[in-house]
Amino acid sequence: MMQVVPGKDTLHNIISENTLLTNEHIWYIDGWVYVANETTLTIEPGTTIRLLPRPTSANEYATGLVITRGARINAAGTPYSPVKFVVAPTGKENKLGWSGIILLGSSPDISGPLPASQSPTGISLAYGGNLMKDSSGVLKHVRITLPDSLTRKKSNKLPAGVYMLGTGSKTKLEYVVVEQAGKQQKVAGTLPLP
To answer: Per-residue pLDDT tens for 5-14?
Structure first.
C-alpha cells in the first residue's frame, strides 16, 4: 500500500527543537521519530497524526514516536477533542511490528539500556537516571488506533500503544485509550507514576 504524503506535513528522524503540531491539518510520522535534545513536542487538542510504518532491522514494519531522556511531549487533548495517533496498515500481513509511543525517562531503573534485539525501533534505547520526579510530559485524552495486522514482537511481548521506561513521578497519563479492530484498552485512567 503506497501513501502519498505532503513533505511539509511529515516528521522525519529527529526533532531537536521545540515543535508545535496544530490541529489545522493531518500530520504524518515517517517510521520512527525521536524527540531529543531536551526539547518539547506540543500537540494541540483535536490533532490527528498518522504513523507510517517503515522497515526495521527486525524484518518488520514499524512506526512511532520516541520521547528520549530529557525531552517531553505535551499532548493534552480534551474529551471532545482528543489527540489521535493512527497507525497506517502496511498491506503486508504479519509484517507490522510494535508501533506507538515510547517514553524514556530519567527515573532510577536497574534494567539498563534496552538492547536492540528487544527494542521496537531496532536500536538500543537509553533510559533511567536518578531523578525520581522526572517528567516525560503529558498524555491526556489521547487515542491510539492500531490496524488489525499489528503483532507483538516475540522477543519481548510488549503491550501495544504506549511503552514507558524509567519514567518519573511527574509524567502524567490521563484517559489514554488504545484501540484495535473495535477493541479498546485503557492504558491509564489517572496516573502520575509512582
So the answer is: 456 789 988 9
